[in-house]
Amino acid sequence: MRIRDLKLEINTETAKASAKVEWEDSDRPAITVFFETPAEFAQDLDANPHSFLAGCLPPAIFHAEKRIKMDYPVCPNFLEGLNTIMAHFAHWYGKDGQGPVLEVESLTKPRLGAPRKRTGIFLSGGIDSLAALYSNHQRFSPDHPAYIKDGILIHGFDIGGRLKWGAKQHVFDRAKAAMAEVAADAGLTLIPMLTNIRHLADSRMFWIKVFFGAVLAACGHALDKRFDLLYIASSYDIPNLNPCASHPMIDPEYSSYSLLFRHRDLIMSRLEKVRLVSEWETGLNNMRVCFANAKNQYNCGRCEKCVRTMAELEAIGALDKCRAFPTNKITPDMLKAEDILEKNRYIYWREMIDDLKSRGRHDLVETITNILAAAGD
User: Fold this and answer.
1) pLDDT at 342
2) Are residues 131 and 54 in the same domain?
3) Do 337 and 217 belong together in one domain?
4) Contact 111, 87 (CB under 8 A)
């Protein structure tokens, strides 16, 4: 793989950082990958070599490229981090995680822009990111440099990320409107970003195992003129860590001297995060947990993530207060209709059983217990 022709283009409506990606060992056409923001953030966007190298590394692994060649120097801390990430993937996944040789020079001094003291978070609207934002604002005062002041919402992540699903612009606009309410209530600046970098490796399981953390890092580095620190919300707590594209041993390794990534809230279980978000009315009513991208529904109320989140809210006594789903009632049939058998999801369902018992929802407890037992858990 070769990454070349980095450039930044700004017009009255948008700012776009782009690079041309050429394949050497895969019979695929060259593609121009990009990161785009509204023009109001043009001063923050950069055609940063770190963005393109981070974002292109997993696709190079997926398509078995022998090397990545880029004639733009990068931070030696960042370069060391990418090699460390590849070592983790190779250890976790064997041959499927082995990566290319990075033929890239190291900078002799760090890339530093104007002094700034801003912290941001990737704000998808899910339980993890909402809990991370809410807990940060509880722990830090607004004048602390680690206090979150910006939220990045990515078009090209779960929405518009896969070619076969299309851009889903109306779905993104709906998500952006909901996150604008969250941002306004939390005093954040919401930064929408569009990227096509996920299109380089359009595989769901590879996305989960290797790719999505790199896309977060790539988008963050594109805005490193604005930030010193970007938070990535944890997916799992410490007792339940699994190999994953976003992991406490992976995310910080995407850092450079000028931009730090932190994987946060590892000490909170999923149910503890749900409890926290339930205390925040705006967060509770605008949470976006659904990946179905249904045409007329913010959260479909039928997929595994929707049903699981509704069950968690029922377990803590908050489902009746939540307006984010088509209904605020849950029945055993809703659980039976869904696939909760992915092994990494068992922990979430087990965790809520005691709370459901205490609320007298023995019908849900029996259904969950039977499904998990049938799966051998």
Assistant:
1) 62
2) no
3) no
4) no
